[in-house]
Amino acid sequence: MPLTAHETGAPVIDPTRFRDVLGHYPTGVVVVTALDRSGAAIGMTVGSFTSVSLDPPLVAFLPDKNSSSWRALRESGERFCVNVLSAGQEDVCRAVAMRKTDKFHDIEWRPSPAGNPIINGAVAWIDCVTEQLHDAGDHHIVVGRVLHLQEGDGETPLLFHQGAYGTFSPH
């Protein structure tokens, strides 16, 4: 069991302040998808996603351990697809983040080579199989081995910064 801040002598950081300060770092927005055992599309919106390794090709995302969407993805099996949302897909982001059931009712998607949902209009998609699962406080670190990936048909990515959604314009 990890030591508490008090036990290590580390300062206690207020969670609200932690979130506010880290909110100054913009993140991309992805939807991690899979199919449940009945073949229905399931997924969760994630802001903590990163590349990990080129050789082998690995990526990672960090879901909250208590998320019911994360529980459903874990129960669906080891394969998942990361969909990098485009600037025009804030509605997709919110629908997947908010809805408890039938999240993909109004979202168009097609199957990836591994059968996972690729959301139409995404900037890119990355098909993966879980390589490792790490405990990290109130979250997990899910490391996925990339099986297939491709640019999508979206143009610019959706970003999250200081509590709001926006996009990126290269110079």
Strand count, sense and barrel status of the largest sheet are: 7 strands, antiparallel
**Binned strand content:** 35-45%
What is the arithmetic mean of pLDDT? 91
Distance between the termini: 47 Å
Helical/strand content category: alpha+beta
Helix content: 10-25%
The beta-strand count equals 12
Q: What spatial form do the alpha-carbon principal axes imply?
A: globular
Report the order of strands and helices: HHEEEEEHEHEEEEEE
Radius of gyration: 17 Å
Number of helices: 4
* Arrangement of strands in the largest sheet: 3-2-6-9-10-5-4
Low-confidence stretches: none
Task: Please specify the SSE layout and strand pairing.
Blueprint: H1 5-8, H2 15-22, E1 27-28, E2 30-35, E3 41-46, E4 49-53, E5 58-61, H3 68-76, E6 79-84, H4 90-98, E7 109-111, E8 117-119, E9 124-136, E10 139-151, E11 158-161, E12 164-167
Antiparallel strand pairs: 1-11, 2-3, 2-6, 4-5, 5-10, 6-9, 7-8, 9-10, 11-12
Descriptive overview:
By secondary structure, the protein is α+β, with helices and mostly antiparallel strands. 18% of the residues lie in helices and 40% in strands. The chain has four helices and twelve strands. It has helices at residues 5-8, 15-22, 68-76, 90-98, and strands spanning 27-28, 30-35, 41-46, 49-53, 58-61, 79-84, 109-111, 117-119, 124-136, 139-151, 158-161, 164-167. The longest helix is centred in the middle third of the chain and has 9 residues, at 68-76. The termini are far apart.
